[in-house]
Amino acid sequence: MLHSHLTTLNAVSLVLNTFAAEGLSSEALLAGSGINAADLSRADPRITTSQEMQVCANALALRREIGLELGRRMHVSAYGMLGYALLSSATFGDALALALRYPALLGTLFDLRLEQDHEHVWLTASNYRDRSALAIFNAELCMASLKVICDDLLGQPLPLHAARFAHAEPGYRSHYQATFACPVQFGGDHHGFAFERHWLERPLPLADGVTHRAMAERCRRQNTEFTGRQAWLARIRQALARQLSQPPGLEGLARQMKCSARTLRRHLHDVGSSYQELLDELRFERAKQLLAEDRLPIYQIAEQLGFSETASLRHAFIRWSGVAPSHFRS
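Request: output the structure for the sequence above.
Response:
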């Protein structure tokens, strides 16, 4: 699955900082993502979800429970203007409603909902849309970070009634108990946690009407820009993905998109990408898919991806992933 969703470098920076104390180099965690150390200092650090998830996959290979740990470190301040809009909301319920109004700014890979009954409110996450191998990791990251956001907004831990997850119980259940501090069930229909309904009416300690209105308006504008960029990038990716065996080049792709090469280059730069980076990302995703299917010999995969010879694919794949195509397949 190819992802056009844009996000920021917050999660990537969090991964690098988490493992830095263990002496692990950033190169190992950034391998195959197309992100380099210089990108971390950009003023507008936009990347694609696919890039972010590659870094997370590298982290997951080192520690299976890392999703919960990263979620516990993802404070509301990591969400930029949206975070300030949430903090300045009048009530806890108002803040949650605003967060769910702008999923693109929240950076979620799930559909989030608030479901109320007479006594409790469930904050649920369903319809996951990313790599299946990262489904549990992303569920842990999503729910743990939402719990931290709730705690940050209230200025105190939100007591939970229960938590549940759609996947089977992992071997590190104790980490769930430490994260949510409530009974946890596995094998449900979706992910979520519940708290008493009266918390929705709780005034927030940092509420400020003037600041909130200003931040909410900026969030509305940013969401419009953000989703517009996502839709545009999706069209670019779809057009290029159809032509991997014979890439059209920047000029050819620009003609297809009915714009000049200069305009296309500028737009790609604005979303933190370039023609070559986009082509590499699409080739890498497709190469992994074809290698995993194990139907075609590697020389035919090279042809399908527009490489003139197998050695070119091999060199590129090692640069993207750190291993040769044959090693990845085995």
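The longest helix spans residues 209-241.
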